Amino acid sequence: MLSPTAPPDTLSRPLWRQVLALALPALAQQYLHLVVQLSDQFLAGRFELPDPNQRPVYLSALNTAGYLYWFVSSYTVLVSVGSTALVARFVGAKDWALAQHATGQSVVLAVVFGLLGTVAALLGLPSLIEALKLTGDAAHLCVEFLTPLAVLLAFQITESACAACLAGAGDTRTGLKVLGLVAVLNVPLAWGLCFGVGPIRGIGFVGIALGTGISHVIGCVLLLVILARGKSGLKLRLANLVPAPGLIRRLLRVSVPAAIDSLSAAFCQLWFLSLVNSLGDTAASAHGIALKWEALGFLSGAAFGTAAMALVGQNLGARTPDRAARSGWTAYALGGGVMSFMGLLFVLLAEHMFRLFCPDPSLQPIVDTGVPALRLIACAMPALASQIIFTAALRGAGDSRVPVLFSWFGFLCVRIPLAHLLTAPQVNLGSLGTIPGYDLGLLGAWVAMCSDLWVRGTFFAIRFAGGKWKKVEV
């Protein structure tokens, strides 16, 4: 039965308008989060240190912490992808009762996975950071930074699940408003906890992370209240929070393969990071800053991927698979255009972007190391758009198994081997001896990354064009 709070039917509107209506709020939301990350990087480059020469150590710690915190985004896929895909199918079929039930089960899964993630992080962080070849003070600082985020993890995953359910219902504006508030609160909280307010002394580096964690707690509570009151056809009721094994299995049937994909990609990213960290603090710091700016493109793709996932799911639920396909291609055309424009900005403004975080002349080696890498990624923007947007579109259809193989091939057969070959003066092949490497340092690592993106971007475009995803049951 149609919910009295359901949004109007928009499936008959022009596709480009539907894509923009979903993608632009998501894009604003993504960029607000990027502002928070850039603010954190800005803070890490400016708070007082007893020894100014330790600044690269803090930036290196923040870079590794950023990678591990990005791992959280991959972990939330255990809930968010299935939530968006299933809610979108039910909304497309106008089955609002099941859409609301799926929302409740998503919240239950988010809390469970959040608590499990907290325990795992608190027990395993030191060993994981050691495996990433981050040592000494940088390793200690990284553990300190991530601990408050690990403690509050359940709130962030629940926040993500709520926003994912609303996106499945075609509502990305509510997520924008709430998560925009999270971003706005994050900046003063991080600054206040880092530097202090008035007579109250700040707690330094760790305060940056604590501000982020507290802001996500606020966002989680707000989204739960909004859903409890009813929004966009979804209403969170206590009855829907009672575990329903059948519906949970349907959610996990989509989310688990997608999570395996995201988490395995995250592990490979950490492996890749260990290679970068082995190049020294200067390369690690430059890599982290370049990634922060590269996120201007990556997050654009994620926003248009959100639109593709919701529209593909809704159109399949409405039994209009051809329109679902056109939704994916429209999202790629628009998102790829935005990302290519971002690539042009990297080429033109890379040095200015780096100097924003490296104002001290002593940090010039970081600028010199990172600028060529940031300019290089511009050539991979169309491929990155394909990989991100078509991955999301396939997940919206419930096709989340085969893409795992694409990710494994890209990382294990392209990025990691090439990174070993291009970054080091020689490569140790164990019993087979050694071979000469190209010793390109950080630039070699980014050449390997661009090569991987083109391989995976091609695979995902071919998979989506093939159309087998139209027949997947969720």
Provide a short characterization of the protein structure.
By secondary structure, the protein is mainly α. The protein has helices spanning 15-44, 55-92, 96-131, 136-151, 153-168, 173-195, 205-229, 245-277, 281-317, 321-357, 364-376, 381-396, 402-423, 442-466, and strands spanning 196-197, 200-201, 426-428, 434-436.
How is this fold's topology laid out?
Blueprint: H1 15-44, H2 55-92, H3 96-131, H4 136-151, H5 153-168, H6 173-195, E1 196-197, E2 200-201, H7 205-229, H8 245-277, H9 281-317, H10 321-357, H11 364-376, H12 381-396, H13 402-423, E3 426-428, E4 434-436, H14 442-466
Antiparallel strand pairs: 1-2, 3-4
Helix pairs in contact: 1-6, 1-7, 1-9, 1-10, 2-3, 2-4, 2-5, 2-8, 2-9, 3-4, 3-5, 3-8, 4-7, 5-7, 6-7, 8-13, 9-10, 9-11, 9-12, 10-11, 10-12, 11-14, 12-14, 13-14
Please give a structural write-up.
By secondary structure, the chain is mainly alpha-helical. The protein has one domain (15-471). The chain is built from 14 helices and four strands. It has helices spanning 15-44, 55-92, 96-131, 136-151, 153-168, 173-195, 205-229, 245-277, 281-317, 321-357, 364-376, 381-396, 402-423, 442-466; strands spanning 196-197, 200-201, 426-428, 434-436. The chain has a two-stranded antiparallel ribbon with strand order 1-2. It has a two-stranded antiparallel sheet with strand order 3-4. It is globular and about 60 Å long. It starts with 14 loop residues before the first helix and ends in an 8-residue tail after the last helix. The relative contact order is 0.13. Residues 1-9 have low confidence and may be disordered.
